[in-house]
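agent> Task received from the user: take the single chain below, predict its 3D structure, and emit structure tokens. No templates, no multimer pairing.
agent> Plan: (1) validate residues, (2) run structure prediction, (3) serialize to tokens, (4) report one or two observations.
agent> Step 1 OK, no nonstandard residues flagged.
tool_call: predict_structure(input=
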Amino acid sequence: MNSKPSLTRRELIVASAISGLSLAAVSDATAMNRTRGFLHVDKSARGKMYVSVRDEIMMVGGYSSIAEGLQDIGLSAIEMAVSRDSSVRAITPSSDKPRLFLNIDEDVDLLSQQLSSTHTRLTSFLIPNNFGTKDLDAEVAWVIRVVQMADKLGAGAVRIDSAMEGGRQLPVKTRQEIFSRCVKTIILETNGVELGIENHGVEGNDPEFLLGLIHMVGSKRLGVTMDMGNFYWAGYPIEELYAILQRLAPYTKHTHVKNIGYPAEMRNQRRQAGYEYGKYSCPIPEGDIDIKRVVGFLRTAGYQRDICIEDESLGKFDEPTRRKHLREAAAFLKLAI
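)
tool_result: status=success, residues=337
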């Protein structure tokens, strides 16, 4: 779960700037990107659901590379986290290239080669965007570049964030308007790749807030990154959780899977957000959430992308046990789908 950015009152004046994103900078960047040659990636392989893993989650297993980790846990699909400097982990890192930069065309080509040579499928990028920043044009241009590179590399989705600097000091409608204007610009300047708002944090786990954003943007390319555990983290009773996930299934563009195991008497009670999460987070097969039931919601809704491992309980265990739980989660989810 990502923490919300710290806020300053002065920076929140950006909220009053919703009346005008400058498109000049992002359009120039887009034109430049389109003039360069990139390796073609075949994106025709679509079909039923499959299992993937977040790179940052898998690498707590102590693997030397993404390629080694995927081989050990029996998967071939990865979600990659993008840092603020536009870098991602190399699939097969070297001493001089431990990370590759999505704002450097040669690095993007190298990443494409590494994905191909290791038979690794890039499912999505995860980005920590902040539409509350003072330089909103630069932030939108950065997201546009990441989405374009996702398209070049064959990824079907990019996980985005609704959290913004100082967002809690803004009226919900104002925050939604800022988000909507930014995302509309991103969609206008990109093709194909879908955007999934992750439900996390307090307001981000309000389904009405999420659906409000989706409807305000009004594009089929925008939906949710359904985190199956985060609504439970936010305090919803287990049966309410299933109703929310079923409601959001038709809007799902990407997923994260985690689990929590509360005492039986707490499962259908409303709890404080984040209640004893460190204590009760648990390996994916062991928690209260019936993952197979949620997968059923997604199947009924026509979802045909990855079910992505995001086991945040791994830090409780030693390295060999972390690897064991990753292998077990992969096997469990393969059966669930």
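agent> Step 4: summary for the user.
The first helix runs from residue 24 to 35.
agent> Done.
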